Amino acid sequence: MENDETPVGIKRRDFIISSFILSAASFGCLSLTSCQAFSDWAVAEELTMSADRNDRFERGWKKLKEIDGDAGEKVIEALKDIAPDLGRYTIEYPFGDVYSREGLDVKSREIATVAALAAMGNAQPQLKVHIGAALNVGCSAQEIVEIIIQMSVYAGFPAALNAAAAAKAVFSERGIINV
Amino acid sequence: MENDETPVGIKRRDFIISSFILSAASFGCLSLTSCQAFSDWAVAEELTMSADRNDRFERGWKKLKEIDGDAGEKVIEALKDIAPDLGRYTIEYPFGDVYSREGLDVKSREIATVAALAAMGNAQPQLKVHIGAALNVGCSAQEIVEIIIQMSVYAGFPAALNAAAAAKAVFSERGIINV
Amino acid sequence: MENDETPVGIKRRDFIISSFILSAASFGCLSLTSCQAFSDWAVAEELTMSADRNDRFERGWKKLKEIDGDAGEKVIEALKDIAPDLGRYTIEYPFGDVYSREGLDVKSREIATVAALAAMGNAQPQLKVHIGAALNVGCSAQEIVEIIIQMSVYAGFPAALNAAAAAKAVFSERGIINV
Amino acid sequence: MENDETPVGIKRRDFIISSFILSAASFGCLSLTSCQAFSDWAVAEELTMSADRNDRFERGWKKLKEIDGDAGEKVIEALKDIAPDLGRYTIEYPFGDVYSREGLDVKSREIATVAALAAMGNAQPQLKVHIGAALNVGCSAQEIVEIIIQMSVYAGFPAALNAAAAAKAVFSERGIINV
Amino acid sequence: MENDETPVGIKRRDFIISSFILSAASFGCLSLTSCQAFSDWAVAEELTMSADRNDRFERGWKKLKEIDGDAGEKVIEALKDIAPDLGRYTIEYPFGDVYSREGLDVKSREIATVAALAAMGNAQPQLKVHIGAALNVGCSAQEIVEIIIQMSVYAGFPAALNAAAAAKAVFSERGIINV
Amino acid sequence: MENDETPVGIKRRDFIISSFILSAASFGCLSLTSCQAFSDWAVAEELTMSADRNDRFERGWKKLKEIDGDAGEKVIEALKDIAPDLGRYTIEYPFGDVYSREGLDVKSREIATVAALAAMGNAQPQLKVHIGAALNVGCSAQEIVEIIIQMSVYAGFPAALNAAAAAKAVFSERGIINV
User: Fold this and answer.
1) Residue F120 lies inside a defined structural domain of this protein
2) In what residue span(s) does the Carboxymuconolactone decarboxylase-like domain sit (chains A, B, C, D, E, F) (predicted)?
3) Per-residue confidence band for B179, with pLDDT thresholds at 50, 70 and 90
4) What is the domain extent for residue E118?
5) Given CB atoms, is D155 within the 8 Å cutoff of chain F?
6) Which CATH number fits the domain that encloses residue B118?
7) Does residue B174 register a pLDDT over 90?
8) Domain presence at residue A136
9) What is the mean pLDDT of each run of 10 residues along chain D (179 residues)?
10) Quick check: is E134 in a domain?
11) Chain A CB contacts of C78 below 8 Å
12) For position C33, what pLDDT does the model report?
């Protein structure tokens, strides 16, 4: 599906593990040690790395698109010329590992993220992405505003005012409010 | 009820508004301007202040106790010798105004607060109070741990590790984990 | 007076307390409990809320305009489409409660605020508003520059350099310096 | 080797991939799809997860011990009761992914980390661990002090003074200075 | 005077400027103006600058003791084993250069510093030193509390609460309050 | 040389030390050691210190231009209308004192600075200057990217992503990458 393609600029070194095992099996190897194809350490290495990439990267990429939508994709796209591995890690760790965890629903996760970014006050572009993400996963505009108002208590009024400006930009872009 | 009493050390200058209006009415004043007792500016001032205190302070105090429990009360108690008005404001604005708002349930509010305090990383005592508060309003220990793990993404691993240490202390105190 | 009008967008639910008491008195109620009009809890509630709004909001609005001038008004105006209640709180708590306090003169209050915002380094719009406010309440341009230089000691040179850029913009806008 | 053991408390769900493939091969499966043992999704899932764990976790654990030594191990140990997965991530992402990268020598990496933690000023325990780590990978005590002095420029004197106190504690513990 | 001695551990390379002028005089110059070598403006400038250099440390040391008192001295003392040059810089730049400037009275300077450190929230030891310093230069306890209350607006309630705890410790130590 | 000129707006009070020694010689001293006035160690020390003072600005200015190049000069230039003394201090303390120190090579110093500014996340203009400075003193683009990736661990992904955007702008401006 078009939506599930990996982004341009992220060097995909992954190798489909199932097809690899298939190949291995197709060699008719009866034991790993007696089989040339598998005695090569580098191949085994590739295998583990492929497995790694396959899983976390793919899962993360889907999660990123599910939560952040186009805005998330643009973040990764913008990294391709400068730090593609940071793009890969952004997919793998935050989305492949953390947002894919059970134990806290994704709406609550976005509430936590909007709160944290509003409170930190030094990550305006990410705050905008996650205000959009919060809307995507079911937060109402009102709930987002409530989180922002609450941050005046913990991080002060300037942090809340600047977060409100970020929300205004996102809500306006989405046609939620007319400015 | 014992639980609803205002804390010692917060100088209650409030004046029961109903009894004041009662008094006013008992003067038989037919109009405010013609009545000496009310033409005094200071009295009017007292009235508005009483009204103010009554509402926001009382609502905030109940909310504080409902959410933070004893830990919240201790925060206010600790301020009585140094900055009682900061104690009063802590009750009135965060709890009387913000936590009393509709539009976001109190569990989501505590998720936002734990996230923000963990991310800021410079408010360890308040983080502990709100980890406890999150438990009080229905967050599971697991959900709190999930918020903290997620903060490693936005504020870095040191912030998450220090928040985990705070959670460990609170969970241990509550007998949720044995350390 | 035009200058004292409340801003558009802030929903004024306040109720003039004096006229309410007047009305109460005009009922000829001799005691609050015996008077139907006042025995209604909701009305008493409305009364306290009106008193609250009246006092803190009006006092805060005047203080905001006195200190921040048009820049402050624009902050509130910008919130009307997104978070009018945050606008109301910004008037009520910082200005109605805190800046209206005795115990520290307003010039010292602005010195404190410019220092804090310069040191925090993540609230450039608010820093500009308060550099203007500092000028409004009697700080000289030189005193503001001294505060900023001093912040190089506590928050580092980047914080001081960025605050100097903010001061340059404000001073230039006011015609204090020609750039 | 004792030193390379994984820490207690980190639930090792890993599965030796080579032995697994071995087993698969030993089934004499000629193709993956025709082979019961591999048609089970859960097993495949386990495989990818094992591969994942194997690689990044093992590499990270060795790197953590090489760089941070016992101090790093204690960090992971302290998490076992509260957030073992955060411990696993701390091993996998910072150490398995980032510190294992080429392109910057490990001494330069510790210079960067000590600088960042000293400048942030809200991660004293981690700063101590990394001052020790910097010593472990070849920074001299003098070089560490130079980094700290330099942070007075970027984050202010309080940050530098508190980092110097952290260095004093670590150097004293290691017998580098006598206090 | 005992109080003016430089701290142990700070290498004193300073030289009494008067003895230098004495040396100049020993060249036979009876007056500075009648002596060619010294009548040169540039030389006089040079002399002043030497004095100044001398002066930065000496002036800073006096200023530090005047403002921070024993607490400041202890800060420098604590650095002697680990980073004496950071101690020297702390005397020379913040106190010799910045606090010695005209253009802002020292009381206003301490108001700015207490505000900044309270707002930053990650420099508790320095905040305590400067709460003491503020008292030393004429701030009342009440004025310090007002600054702290005001920081709840700009940096949030946790920052204000933690600063209040610092003030409580300092005021108690000084016998201003009994706890 | 054009490149070594001091910036407009910074008052040059410096004095060529050699002319001072010349003056000394004009007193009839044939050699420094045979001349009582100058044979005094303290005097020589004093002379050195004068030179040193002279030196802080001159040394700092050269260091600033060597490290930061034109970008550094523009920072100082931008201050001339608003806070020229902050410009002077920026030259004297960070560059005349700190970057001129021995004990840590200048490449390591820039690694530390890029790391700190990326982690702090509220000093984007200074981060750009120092990414350029890092290139100037021998860091490769790849090494800078590695530092930035590493900051995702300590300060979170938003800090790393914003630093990557800063690096992209600088690398693009220098023609290192084509965007």
Assistant:
1) yes
2) 84-169
3) confident
4) 105-174
5) yes
6) 1.20.1290.10
7) yes
8) yes
9) 45 31 32 31 36 77 95 94 96 97 98 98 98 98 98 98 98 92
10) yes
11) 165, 168
12) 31
Q: Is E54 in CB contact (< 8 Å) with chain A?
A: no
pLDDT tens track for C51-75: 445 699 999 999 999 999 999 999 9
Of A84-98, E7-21, F40-54, F89-103, the poorest mean pLDDT is in E7-21
* Residue whose C-alpha is closest to residue C120's, from E38, D121, E172: D121
Give the mutation candidate from A19, A20, A29, A32 for the D interface (greatest D CB count, under 10 A): A32
Identify which of D98, C64, D142 has the alpha carbon closest to the alpha carbon of residue E84.
Answer: D142
| Rounded-to-integer distance, Cα A169 and Cα A128, Å | 8
Q: Which amino acid is it at F112? A: A
> Coil, helix or strand for D76?
helix
Q: What is the DSSP string of E121-151?
A: -S-HHHHHHHHHHHHHTT--HHHHHHHHHHH
Neighbours of F69 (CB within 10 A): 16
C44 inside 8 A of chain F by CB:
no
d(CA B42, CA B137) in angstroms, rounded, equals 42
In a domain, C66, yes or no: no
**What's the per-residue H, E or C state across F55-83?**
HHHHHHHHHHHHHCCHHHHHHHHHHCCCC
Kindly state whether E89 is in contact with chain D, defined as any CB-CB distance less than 8 angstroms. yes
Chain-centroid distance, C-alpha F58: 10
Interface check for F86 against chain C (CB to CB < 8 A): the answer is yes
Q: How many domains does chain E have?
A: 1
Asked if D165's CB is within 8 angstroms of E90's CB, the reply is: no
B31-35: average pLDDT: 31
- Is C82 close to A177, i.e. CB distance below 8 A? yes
What pLDDT is attached to residue F14?
Answer: 31
Distances (CA, A) of F120 to A126, A130, A148, A167, A179: 15, 21, 22, 23, 33
The complex scores an ipTM of 0.75
Record the pTM.
0.79
State the residue for tokens 């089989």. A35
Q: Which of C119, C153, C157 sits opposite D154 (nearest CB)?
A: C157
